[in-house]
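Standup notes
- HV: blocked on the assembly model, inputs below
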Amino acid sequence: MTLKPDSPKRQLGGESVIPALAIAFTLYFFSTIWNSPWTAQVSTFLIGGILLLVCAIFFVQAGLVLRSGQGNLGFGNLITREDISSGRVGLFATTVGYCILIDHLGFTLTTFLFLSSSMFILSRGRNAAFISLISAAMALAGWAVFIWAFDTRFPRGWFENMMKAVLSNG
Amino acid sequence: MGDTAAILLEVFLETISFWYIIVPTIFLGLVVGGIPGFSAANTIIILMPLTLAMSLQGGLIFMVALYCSARMGAGIPAILVNIPGTAGAAATPLDGYPMAKQGKGQQALSISFVASSLGGLLTTIIALAAMPILARVGFYMHSTEMIVVMLFGISLIASIAAQDMVKGLIAGFLGLMIGSIGTDVVYATPRGTFGFLELYDGVPLIPALVGLFAVSEAFIIIEKKVIVTHDGDVKAPSWNATLEGVQIALKRWWHIVWTSLIGLVIGVIPGAGASIASFVAYQQSRSFSKTPELYGTGHPEGLIAPESANNGVTSGTLVPLLVLGIPGGATAAIMLVVMQYHGVSFGPSLFDTQPKVGYGMFMAMAVSYILMIFTILPLSRYMSHVTTIPTIYLAPMIISFTLVGAFVPREYMFDLYLALAFGVLGYIARRTGYHVAAILIGVILGPLLEKYFLWSLKKSDGDIMVLFSSTLGNILWLCLLLSLVLPAIFAFQRKRKSLGVVAE
């Protein structure tokens, strides 16, 4: 528990996120089974009870660390300015966009857009031509293997429908 | 005895002659096993028309080879990019990925391939020899005994928690709570579902696996140029590294033997699977190791144990299928359908009426494992290049192909968002020192433990002492207790010994 004099202070704000989520989730879970039959309650009350106890121990420990000056309530281990400059925030935004768009545009086109935009963000705008080429190759390879060859149930959009029409007529 | 030997030899030679089916299937299995969401079972379903169009022998060989190679393939991304292809490989990255980060990806792959092949081959031979005895194991394993088997796996949380007890336990119990989401097994009361109908069946494993491992890992690896730890120290792959891996694995042959036997026994039990086997094998391997402190840092034994065990499961699954007609898992159930289509009847009489079918499935497995050693091992040199792909290209590829893999099993867009949510949870956990493997163990084993626990309580009218009511169960409880206590005693003795040496 004791830190070396030169080691950075523990960022307890960031470390507390998981226990805080765990407590909130456990209390919500208990609220959903309060009036349920015992079969729905028995194991979750047991597991949830232990989880609440362990989280309480964590917060007591965190309080002691704070009091001894070996930690602070910062979130530096979770969010930093570097997350923006390294492109992590941008990658997260494109990932959310991927989940939203894939249902409308289908696998191939969305994959191409996602790969090219995320690689472009991560490489800070360098190698645009190479990135476009590799993204197109990956998206088309994915379509060829998963949709054309194996007929898997990937989301389909106008590109997949067009190719299906072309291949069935050609 | 002589007749059986002659049949076995004949079936072996016939199976080898189907090499043109086995070799391409091995490569197909590696691909589908390596992508989360594409299990062997899914692929066999997709290719069912092809399987039914083949001869019975060809179809069976195809399915068995795919099953074995997909199991091995799931370990490849687990080692190279910390993404288990299936839940059965969830324990593989614990030591495989640290090896890859140290620039030993090729060596780790060789160790994994040798452990998987030898473990699979050995258990196939044992299953063939001891089939009548093994087939009865399923009869003795009731819900009370299964609770102890689950606890063997869940006790791995305690080992992970040993590094930081409070954080490890929070991660493990949070996983168990997440695993409890869904309706309860007796009265189907919805619990903790946030009102989503998609969660009534519980938390689907693939989105959890994809999010906790793949998505969160992709967001972490972009901090570095490539996956290996020292950016400037990327070693060129060489055949020596492959041979070193083979030597390391062969030196630990006894480890391969006993951990694959754990897989075989767990595989024989219907309903238990590779994920349980690999967690149990890893935990037991760590418990009885002379160097438990090395586990989790890239220790070969920590890689051998789950890989041998999850391949040991494959042969175990065939035993109840062939002898009793009870499929031990999803892939075995599909094999059952195909075999019934071809008019094969199951049960002990199968080996009298159609011995070539009965023995042929085991022989197909043995031949697949033998061919796998020669076809896959040389590939480790080329596969390990993945760790040298710049992360600016690798991370988006991981996200796109694994996220869509999360969609495939149930075809719900909801599962895509669920994988993303688990990705955020996994990212927060990794950045703040919580172990995602502990969360995943809870998510996988929690619902199974609860199911068996409730069945036991229902059967005994709520009497908790039912947990200690059977002889086999009590023996297993004793083994569990010993596996938890003995390592601590051994560690204490080693510490005393080393202190004694220093004092002298």
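- HV (later): unblocked. Chain B touches chain A through 65 residues (CB under 8 Å). Chain B has one domain: 2-469.
- Next: hand off to the docking folks.
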